[in-house]
User: Fold these one by one.
Assistant:
Number 1:
Amino acid sequence: MELRTDLALISEWIVEGSEVLDLGCGDGTLLAHLRETRSVTGYGLEIDDENIILCIQACVNVIHTDLNQGLSDFSDDSFDYVVMTEALQSIHRPDLLLLEMLRVGRQGIVTFPNFLHWRARFSLFFCGIMPISRALPNEWYNTENIHLCSLHDFEKLCHRLDIEVLQRTVVDTTHHTNWLNKLMPNLFGEIALYRLRSKPVKRIYQRKKR
């Protein structure tokens, strides 16, 4: 099965032989691909029972857990990368989980739908209703998304948390990029991908505290 484009982009950011923790790993597709193509080892965290069965069938190490409970079972710098694809907006405290990701991992990779894509803006400003789009397909009353944000919102949060953005790209819902995405990402990007780390000074301070 062909790997989804956003997962392929994430794979390019991960160094061969790394240890990876995948938060909300779904059916384990990303971890299985990384194992086969980049000799990656690691674990997936997942809450859905059907996805856990699929992970086991794919020989992916998976732990049944709720991400809202945090990552206290893992020690500092346990992984080279902690990945979370399109789950940030459904977490009760995304700010705390971002900090946990960068405590547990040396780098974090996060993807999420951009709430200020032009279709969402059109629904809000011209129709006066919560947006429904390819990236946000649910009605306001049955969506799992509770903390939607734009690229600018996310980068402002990173600045506040002393998180450094190492790399950013945006794609559409077919998980492809184009010149409009690159020219005006906060307007035309439907899904954002970020590679992050704690700012070096903060990481040194955390190690000294230990």
Number 2:
Amino acid sequence: MLDLAVVGGGPAGLTAGLYASRGGLKEVVLFEPGMPGGQITQSSEIENYPGQLSVISGIELMQNWLPQAERFGMKHELDEIVRVEKQGETFLLTAASGKTHEAQSVIFATGSVPKRAGFEGEEEFLGRGISTCATCDGFFYRGKEVAVIGGGDAALEEAMFLAKMCKKVYLIHRRDSFRAPPATVERLKECENLEQMLNARPVKVLGDAKSGVTGIRLAIDSQGERDLLVPGVFIFVGRTVKNGALQDDRGNFLCAVESNGEVIVDLKMHTSVDGLFAAGDVRALSPKQVVCAAADGAIAALEAIAYHERKAR
């Protein structure tokens, strides 16, 4: 019987494992099928993590998180959890390998992944001019021109954020109108350096291995193809929440979730199920930042410790 099962090995899960094991829980196991670290390991430049003066890669930032947590007793299981169920007062976790584990509590920190727009070069240049986070990478394009792809609320908000620091922002959407709320669309008019490009689809990234992204080729209805010479392309076409392990065979969720599948939590990372906590990008209203995910993990771990103390009384 595990004291705590941590599902997911990104910043939230690793911090949760560290705090829980250091805080006194004896059997803490982190389940992550690959190398822990999360999506941030795909970033080539990190300069906004507190206390980190030099610009480093995401892999460099995360390389010590696992051994630090293991030093306090957390174990890492190289297996994917595909089902989390609650049976009475405990949880049953089923892994992809077929193994099952029982746990007194669970911190669910599987994250979410940005959806791809599906054009040539998108994967190849990810982290080298292609970005899915304006807060993370917008600083690198101060005074430059960038393109934003997407038509939802997130795309428009991120485009307006970039407009505050970039010389010009091209907002590219494949339809003739945006899907964002009318109030958000109206706010676009306040950005004089933002150009809307509707009925336009990205076709191909322009660039090379040495220079990175130098532009993007678009297919515009009734106009044909056009090349935008920009060093940065930001993609916001939605996210896939990795919540499958919380669903049963009928698609019912173990706990309450938003319409987009994000897990609903309170300020202490409690879900609607006692003993089940969620942290990081998988939870609703997550800022999608490493430092915030780490904070979530710490809060969830402290609450898991408090949960065990309450049960022991």
Number 3:
Amino acid sequence: MGISERKEKEKQIRRNDIIDAAEKVFFSKGYDVATMDDVAKKAEFSKRTVYVYFNSKEQLYFEIMVRGYKILIEMMEAVLAERKNMNAIDRIELMSKTLYQFNIEYPNYFDAIMCYENGEKDFINGIPDNSREECYALGEKIFGYLAAALADGVEEGVIRGDIEIIDTAIILWSCTIGLFNMLIKKRNYIEHYHKRNSEKLLLEGLDMLMITIKNLNWGKENEKEK
């Protein structure tokens, strides 16, 4: 390994160390309370060194979301690869359930992404284009799975043929995020005050969303063909 390659490797190690430290600080103290001083202390670097690699707390937040999105995409691709022959409706439901499983296994990444989805952090100044664009690209990749499933569903006949694919994907994604946000953040209230199981309500909510896009004549048409 040459000198330049070694320096680049050391630079990447320091960069990852700082992101690791930021995760620990943001996840334990909360993003709004945490400071770059906290991150530098946790990483055992000077604040000046941290700023050599990241120009703001916001940039670190986006880097953490990139990690979360990559894990979520890996989970989705794995479950979809296992069940290639399912119809589009089942694929969409599986994607939603995978998102829920992601919340169970990686709650801190899930919260980071949900805060982003429900906020305006993408409009904050001071985030380099490469950090922001990588985060956007990964989010759009997940959105692309949903849009592709809708298009396949229309072609298969299991989804209504009168929908506009992108509009419907945006609405479904927004409704799903809202459902997750409510049922997860208000879980204790729902389960103790209303005596309802949040996970069961989530599945029921997803079923209701699927009814709005299903081609309700699909089963009848299949019966006629038989």
Number 4:
Amino acid sequence: MYMFKYVTKRLLLMLCTFFIIFTMCFVLIKMLPIPVNVLPGMDTEIAYRTLEGRGWITNIRPGANGVWEYDRVPIIIQYGNYLKRIVLDGDFGIATTLPGYATKDLWTEVFIPKLPPTVLINIYSTLIGVPIGLGLGILAALKKNKWQDQVINIFIILLISLPSIVLALLIQYLFCFKLHLFPISMETSNAYFTWPVFKSMLPAVFALCLGSIAGYARYTRAELSEVLTGEFMLLARTKGLTKSQAIARHAMRNSMVVIFPSILSEFISVLSGSLIIEKMFLINGVGGLYLSAITNTDYDAFMLLSGFYTLIGLTAGIVIDISYGIIDPRIRMGAK
């Protein structure tokens, strides 16, 4: 009962927070000049009428020297129409200035087709990074202050110190350019589960998961080292359990209360931090689309993608908090 009330409360707070952030983004973006994208061969009036149809401007009229004039629709009215289209029609707008996507529906023709590559490279990086990171962290904790621990700590410090952009450049230079083990950019095919496409994703996956491996290993080593020195571990040994049994049954379970939520948070941070990596390896995903929407001032695309990343971050906070109660039943989120 406590968990149900807690989750309900957090969901309501999440929706309120999302609405506030979404509103702030809309208001701030609408205070900027309105970009008018006139495609080759398109009548200028058509471009303005498209913006008028989206509810951005009104009272379009020809001005001096062939420059069209218009009046801005008040922001509050624009926002109301925008939310109405999203809720009632599922209309997130059309691309206006995105290169190659002008006049296309943002949700069905732009966003959805680009979502699979972004999700896949993050899933692959998690599947590779979690077992390696946990394994290194467990080994470092069990061999604390020995040469294995020292080597792993040096490895962790190097990966944490180097930005993911530098790691990506090293991977591109060494594995793609010098050794020719992988293509330098992702295949353009939509057959994501074929070997050529999967192989072309691996450089970006490695660039993303190396930092995650260091994070997992650091969290695991720190938490497991603390648990292994607990008094309950000595009690478990005095009851007749071997060292391996005590570690497997007690130490690992208690340390996972902190480690598992860190895995979820690390996955979200990787998903949010894959923007530059996608651009560097020419991944045809949401990250590159987001950067393109910013540089080309496509407001509807910016709002859709900002809402997407904001919702991911807020959802991650709830999932991480709930996971504490799932991992350790003694924890009751929301109980007094």
